[in-house]
Amino acid sequence: MARDIKELVKLLTIEEKAGLCGGEDFWHLRSIDRLGIPRIMASDGPHGLRKQKDNPDHLGHNDSIKAVCFPAACATGSSFDKELLYNMGAALGEECQAENVAVLLGPAINIKRNPLCGRNFEYISEDPYLAGAIASSFIQGAQSGNIGTSLKHFAANNQEFFRTTVDVIADERALREIYLAAFEIAVKESQPWTVMSSYNKINGIHSSENHWLLAEVLRDEWGFKGCVVSDWYGTSDRIAGIKAGLDLEMPYSGGHNDKALAEAVKTGDLPEAILDAAVERILTLIFKYADNRIKAEFDRDAHHELSAKIEKESAVLLKNEGGPDNGLLPLKKDRKIAFIGAFADKPRFQGGGSSHINAHKVTSALQAAKARGIAVNYVEGFPADRDAHDPAALKAAVDAAKQADVAVIFAGLPDVIESEGYDREHMRLPECQNAIINAVAEVQPHSVVVLHNGSPVEMPWIDKVKSLLELYLGGQAVGEAAISLLFGETNPSGKLAETFPLRIEDNPSYENFPGDGKAVYYHEGVFVGYRYYDYRKKDVLFPFGHGLSYTTFQYSNMNIENSSIHFVNGSETIAVTADVTNTGKVAGKEVVQLYIEDKTGAAIRPLRELKGFEKLSLAPGETKQVVFTLDKRSFAWYHTGLGGWYCASGEYVVIIGASSRDMRLSAVIQVASNAYPPFHVDWNTTVDALLKDPRSKQAAEKIFTRHRDQSKWEPGVDALGSGGKWNERAYFEAPLRHLYMTQRMSYEEVEKMIEAFNKLLC
Ligand code: BGC
According to the model, what pLDDT value does residue 711 have? Predict the structure, then answer.
């Protein structure tokens, strides 16, 4: 029989209810023995289980149980593989059940606004569609094991600098289209059991007490059913928080806030019904887990293998000069190979901070090569944990490279440069690494760089090396994946989930990151990542969606179900198909991407935006059809006047490509929409606005053409030097009050016209 939570709430005292709205300790929710309310536990997250037993601490310094470290989101986002992320989530769900952890604190899906954000390694993408889709699959997988996830950090936590107090100043369109959209997709598609509010403020209000964010957007608009939990110590005003929709404060507030909540109910400041609703949601969470325990055992070695598989599908081959036929990669085992750089021995496979996993074992590239009987000559060259220039080590690296047929340099960012808690100061690799890569490439034309980093780095040596494999932070089996990819056992298939700019100065938020510690202005609006670089035609090091393979793919036969679509109630969809053929010699996987370009001119929008992706597995010579389904949202932008998603009628281009800059197929589609933004006509409404709106266009053309004739003006005719052009602009830009003054229309006539247009437009 289903448990009656409402009845249970009635049995609680005000103090007990207030107490349930906060943690019992660092990781546990409150229990109440007299009513059989059990104590459940939450743990980080997101790419492994950080279950601390004794002596819990915030930043993950103290040991947690031995668990499996999966690749971080910087890597898994690049897999573009929903099924893979479902499986990773399911494995973590199993681990949580086996360890009696009810809520896994992840996934983290904040948008990568600037490559220097210290926590980008934990985040999925600069693109909300991709981040939302990947997060949804992960959540569905994890929750299939009847544990909860915590979608975090809601919202706009895009930097570490003064993260607990900084005020993010952003316009609603940017928030809706970029910073909230990934959360929206994940909430609607997968209903995470909890959402974690972010530390920062948004437009002056802390997320944990932001009614608009938590109540209006998250619950009312998106239909979120679960609990909102604060980020750890992320509650500023507890009473304002609960009124805004924050259910659970974590961790323990020392009892202060429990007392304050109870007191607020007693004085009438906080309606008891609000407290009851929060308690009901918390109890639902507790019993959803406790009443449905799944007996699970977790096999660390099997999950180690899964971790390797996920990394193999996520790593991105960024460069392989000569292509599949003449590229240096995949390497041949019988060549004389030098491995240079300490990351070959001690890979950096995860980031620092709350997501830090106590990995039960780690496979390095050296170990994985040895296990396969591949002989390599290893020289350390540079350390993995700091920038330390050592001329003798450099000489040893150069000598080893000279004596080899191929040099593979295992480079990356040391922990100290990139972590939760602080942002990077620059986008460079340690100087000692750049020096060695340059020196090695100088003497060895067959050089490969393998990167271990959580977000982009500048590559001053990129033209000197033949190949480049981006491993990101690839989890505890990263060495296994590296060798498998380098030697061609696995064909690389990851694609970048973020743009690699040439220089940090090219990033659209450059002037406004990370701000002065008090406020940070998101002046770039919706132009984040490739949305900016593509619009501004900026050269980049590697574009969003880019990734190579040891085979080649040909795209053909694009077809849109219909050349037009009419959105009557907004639920209509249209199918787009294309064929992809593996034209190379080995099996491989291709991430096929669909972008939409808005040609209507109704708003300033990015050149193109990702609205679909599929990963196809193809044998040599094989062709498969990819199918995308587009809906109103695929074409829409957030119209603040309308207070909703708006899709202007007109022409759009549907593009299918292999990256945001490698467009292979395209087709035009006409979109008609029944929804219009509010339009109130007054004396300052322009002729142009009335001519453009489909509802007033016809009537406006009749009236204004008459006026145009009367003023003997023809568009484009250069009557008086620049006057023709000027007249043309003046005609379109004229407010209606000008007609009264210049077009010999009476005041009353114009007034009547305004009234008539308003009738037409309502
Ligand atoms: C982090 C969260 C994490 C929590 C618990 C916070 O500092 O921002 O992501 O889940 O600590 O460790």
Answer: 54
Q: Ligand 1 centre from 105 Cα, in Å?
A: 8
Q: Alpha carbon 146 to chain centroid distance?
A: 25
Q: How far is CA 273 from CA 46, 593, 679, in A?
A: 34, 47, 40
Q: Where are the domains of the chain?
A: 1-32+252-291, 308-542, 553-673, 687-761
467-470: strand order across its sheet: 316-320, 467-470, 447-452, 406-412, 337-340, 376-379
pLDDT at 724 > cutoff 70:
no
Whole-number Å distance between alpha carbons of 329 and 337: 13
Residue owning tokens 């601490």 = 57
Is the omega angle on the peptide bond into residue 153 within 30 degrees of 0, that is, cis? yes
Residues marked active site are found at 231
pLDDT at 713 over 60: no
Instruction: Reply yes or no on whether the pLDDT at 710 is more than 80.
Output: no
Helix H, strand E, coil C: the string for 683-746 is CCCEHHHHHHCCCCHHHHHHHHHHHHHHCCCCCCCCCCCCHHHHHHHHHHHCEHHHHHHHCCCC
CB of 50 closer than 6 angstroms to any ligand 1 atom: no
Output the CA 41–ligand 1 centroid distance in Å. Answer: 14
Tokens read off for 69: 């470290």
Supply the CATH classification number for the domain 308-542. 3.40.50.1700
Question: Six-digit token pair at 80?
Answer: 């573009």
3-class secondary structure, 339: strand
Q: Output the residue whose Cα is nearest ligand 1's atom 8.
A: 231
Whole-number Å distance between alpha carbons of 622 and 278: 54
Which pair of tokens denotes residue 396?
Answer: 């040893």
Q: What is the pLDDT of residue 417?
A: 95
Residue bearing the CA closest to ligand 1, atom 6: 232
Angle between helices 82-99 and 300-314 (to 10 degrees): 160
Give 653-691 pLDDT, tens digit per residue.
999 999 999 999 999 999 999 888 899 999 999 999 999
**Token code pair at residue 517:** 């510690």
Work out the pLDDT band at 53, boundaries 50, 70, 90. confident
Task: Judge whether 699 and 760 are in contact, CB under 8 Å.
Answer: yes
Angle at 690 between CA 684 and CA 692, to 5 degrees: 130
Distance 108 CA to ligand 1 centre (A): 10
| Superfamily (CATH H level) for 553-673 | Immunoglobulins (2.60.40.10)
DSSP-assigned beta bridge partners for residue 152: 108
Residue nearest to atom 11 of ligand 1 (CA): 232
Interatomic CA distance for residues 453 and 448, integer angstroms? 16
DSSP assignment letter at 101: -
pTM tops 0.90: yes
